[in-house]
């Protein structure tokens, strides 16, 4: 836990810093609110231990400033240590967003108690933050293949769409559909089918660039976003994917064939595509052509 000590009197500041460090916390120091605010812009601070009366920016102003700038991602626990310890000042401090307002002291046990209470909240906040990150990720991940799911795809499509238009760059999309997969399931069962989908997902992921997004689009359909790729490059990449899947040589005896995929590719063209759905529809139409032309092929 990092504690920022703010006081205009260097003797007080040094004594506080010594105690904070003796208690095992990492300590930063500032001589007024303005300097503290500057430090907060670049350093990760969990707790501010601040004097009230200081030149340039006082402790209550600093506290208000921190609270106004908070965005929900990080909470700064704020303790005021002050000579102004009557009830009226205490209320003003709490209204400004302080978590504690105590009389100035140089007693290690008191500082231990104040920082201990701060630490409980900091730890709780960290745990909530970690858990919410984990569940945000889980909500966007397909459990079978560990690829991004529809929710993740919708978010990334919106990002790619606005970025591509703003920077007049390019982006290609590919929809990958497993050929005659119903008959594979019918013969070998759904669990065996799931294992094939996992292998295909892994093969796609390994044969495109790290910056490309791979998603489970539907049951046995995958979608690949290839930023900065023009149509021809994307077709080349997807042919590599198609061939590698063919080389897995997974037998689909009831269909008398090896498991393969058909792929439709479309490059985003802001002058043609009025919406994301229009772009998706062009990739889907290309996929339909790949199916109609005999499957196990890439079409545009
Ligand atoms: P086509 O070559 O025209 O794509 O033929 P197809 O049989 O693959 O296409 P169709 O859309 O008729 O059927 C898709 C099949 O994919 C239906 C279902 O058996 C299978 N499928 C869809 N989702 C899953 C899944 O999550 N697990 C498994 N094992 N099979 C799935
Ligand atoms: Mg002072
Ligand atoms: Mg399908
Ligand atoms: Mg299919």
From TrEMBL:
Q: For the GGDEF domain, which residue ranges apply?
A: 169-300
Give the EC class as a word: transferase
What EC number(s) does this enzyme carry?
2.7.7.65
Question: Which reaction(s) are listed as its catalytic activity?
Answer: 2 GTP = 3',3'-c-di-GMP + 2 diphosphate
CDD domains given in the database record: GGDEF, REC_hyHK_CKI1_RcsC-like
Q: Which GO terms describe its molecular function?
A: diguanylate cyclase activity
The modified positions for 4-aspartylphosphate read 51
InterPro entries, sorted: CheY-like_superfamily, Diguanylate_Cyclase, GGDEF_dom, Nucleotide_cyclase, Rev_trsase/Diguanyl_cyclase, Sig_transdc_resp-reg_receiver
Lineage top rank: taxon: Bacteria
Keywords in alphabetical order, please: Nucleotidyltransferase, Phosphoprotein, Transferase
Q: Where is the Response regulatory domain?
A: 2-119
Q: Record's NCBIfam families?
A: GGDEF (TIGR00254)
Q: What is this protein called?
A: diguanylate cyclase
Species for this entry: Pendulispora brunnea
């Amino acid at each position: 836990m990092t504690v920022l000590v703010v006081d205009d009197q260097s003797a007080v500041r040094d004594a506080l810093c010594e105690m904070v460090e003796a208690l095992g916390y990492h300590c930063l120091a500032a001589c007024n609110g303005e300097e503290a605010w500057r430090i907060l812009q670049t350093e990760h601070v969990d707790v501010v231990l601040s004097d009230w009366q200081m030149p340039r920016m006082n402790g209550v102003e600093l506290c208000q400033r921190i609270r106004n700038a908070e965005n929900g991602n990080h909470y700064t626990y704020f303790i005021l240590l002050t000579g102004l310890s009557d009830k009226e000042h205490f209320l003003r401090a709490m209204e400004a967003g302080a978590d504690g307002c105590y009389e100035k002291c140089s007693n290690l046990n008191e500082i231990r108690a104040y920082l201990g209470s701060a630490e409980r909240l900091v730890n709780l906040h960290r745990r909530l933050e970690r858990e919410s990150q984990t569940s945000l990720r889980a909500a966007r991940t397909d459990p079978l293949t560990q690829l991004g799911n529809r929710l993740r795809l919708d978010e990334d499509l919106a990002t790619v769409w606005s970025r591509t238009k703003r920077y007049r760059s390019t982006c290609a999309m590919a929809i990958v559909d497993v050929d005659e997969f119903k008959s594979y399931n019918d013969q070998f069962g759904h669990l065996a089918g799931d294992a094939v989908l996992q292998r295909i997902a892994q093969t796609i992921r390994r044969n495109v660039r790290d910056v490309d997004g791979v998603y489970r689009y539907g049951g046995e359909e995958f979608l690949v976003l290839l930023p900065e790729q023009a149509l021809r490059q994307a077709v080349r990449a997807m042919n590599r994917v198609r061939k590698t899947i063919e080389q897995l040589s997974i037998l689909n005896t009831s269909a008398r064939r090896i498991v393969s995929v058909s792929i439709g590719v479309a490059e985003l063209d802001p002058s043609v595509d009025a919406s994301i759905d229009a772009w998706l529809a062009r990739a889907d139409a290309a996929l339909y052509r790949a199916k109609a032309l005999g499957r196990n092929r890439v079409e545009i």
